[in-house]
Write a structure and sequence with these properties.
Layout lengths: L15 E4 L2 E4 L3 H20 L7 E6 L1 H9 L1 H9 L2 E4 L2 H9 L10 H15 L2 E6 L4 H12 L4 E6 L5 H14 L3 E5 L4 H9 L7 E4 L3 H5 L8 H5 L3 H8 L4 H4 L1 H12 L4
Parallel strand pairs: 3-4, 3-8, 5-6, 5-7, 7-8
Antiparallel strand pairs: 1-2
Helix pairs in contact: 1-5, 2-3, 2-13
The structure holds uridine-5'-diphosphate.
């Protein structure tokens, strides 16, 4: 499978399915990391030619995203226009298989972040961590440097997704000369934040990572591996954070809707 560099402004879709009107790329984590190499190389070439770097977005789509996209056309557009839309969560992996268009694997922001950091360390790419409570991005950066020795952290900042803060945050990221940006503002705020600012974000790639900084630093506990393998991570999350029950109603709602409507919105 190869990616075309000639269509940088277009979402790449080597093979994709659509679930409730949202595109999901049939792509492995390894392919996501290979795509990162191409995008950073492209951004470095753009910088060398004095051109503006065109930031590309990765979205990690779970069943909550699919339900939010039914209610919010702007969010659906954001997901469908992303460079890559990966299947985050057992529910989306199940849905893709149920619809006869399976995806290779589940790709969560939390699992991808350390792998992304290792690739950045190996290639010398600079990583910026934005979001989470004050101090958490700094702690996550330290943890990532343990997991990926040599990793260059371009910067960390908590900030907020409030539009009033955007300008100042963009300036920080520009000054840090980052290649890759991970944004932990929760969904859909983080993905909409990235999309709103794509044209002025001077990084090759930006990705929303939800609670990844909290998991990485032990502020939140991840479900045991066995539960993750059984597709029950959501149940563990509900047990740890019962206030999520209302949000999690989206899971059975999405499953029903997928059975009724399938690929279409
Ligand atoms: N967060 C933030 N600012 C906000 C809202 C959320 O920094 O205004 C952070 C929060 O501290 C947490 C992350 O965003 O680290 C959201 O994590 P969650 O697990 O809720 O993500 P989701 O389930 O929405 O993907």
């Amino acid at each position: 499978m190869s990616f075309s560099l000639s269509s940088l402004s277009q979402p790449v879709s080597p093979a994709a399915t659509s679930i409730l009107g949202v595109r999901i790329d049939c792509i492995s984590q390894q392919q996501v990391l290979d795509e990162l190499d191409q995008l950073v190389a492209q951004a470095h070439e753009q910088r060398a030619r004095g051109e503006q770097v065109v930031c590309q977005q990765i979205v990690t789509v779970n069943l909550e995203y699919l339900m939010a996209a039914q209610r919010n056309a702007g969010f659906r557009r954001c997901l469908n226009q992303a460079r890559l839309a990966v299947a985050d969560g057992a529910g989306v992996v199940w849905a893709a298989r149920y619809l006869g268009t399976p995806v290779p694997e589940r790709i969560t922001g939390t699992d991808t972040l350390p792998e992304l950091a290792k690739r950045c360390a190996a290639r010398g790419y600079r990583l910026y961590l934005l979001g989470a409570a004050p101090g958490v991005a700094e702690a996550a950066a330290q943890r990532l440097q343990q997991l990926a020795p040599g990793l260059q952290i371009a910067g960390t900042y908590s900030g907020s997704p409030a539009p009033a803060e955007e300008e100042a945050i963009i300036v920080r990221i520009a000054q840090a000369q980052a290649d890759v940006l991970c944004v932990a503002y929760g969904a859909p705020a983080q993905d909409l934040w990235i999309q709103r600012n794509l044209e002025r974000l001077p990084v090759a790639l930006a990705m929303g990572v939800g609670g990844a900084f909290d998991f990485l630093t032990g502020r939140q506990l991840r479900a045991p591996k066995q539960m993750q393998r059984m597709g029950l991570e959501w149940l563990y999350r509900l047990y740890r954070e019962p206030w999520r029950w209302r949000r999690m109603l989206a899971l059975p709602q999405a499953a029903l809707l997928i059975i009724v409507k399938g690929h279409k919105a």
